[in-house]
Amino acid sequence: MTKHPFNEGTKLAQIFTILSDGKWHCGKHELPGTQPAKAIQIIRQHGFDIENSTHYCDKCKDKTVHRRLTSTIPVESSFVRLQLPSKLRQRILKHYNNTEAITLREMISNQLEVDHRFPQVRWSKDESYDVNMSEEELHRKFQLLTRQHNLWKSRYCEHCKKVGERGTFIGINYFAQGGPKWDPKIPNDDERGCLGCFWYNPDDWRLKLNELINESI
Question: What ranges do the domains of the chain cover?
Answer without folding.
Answer: 11-69, 86-216
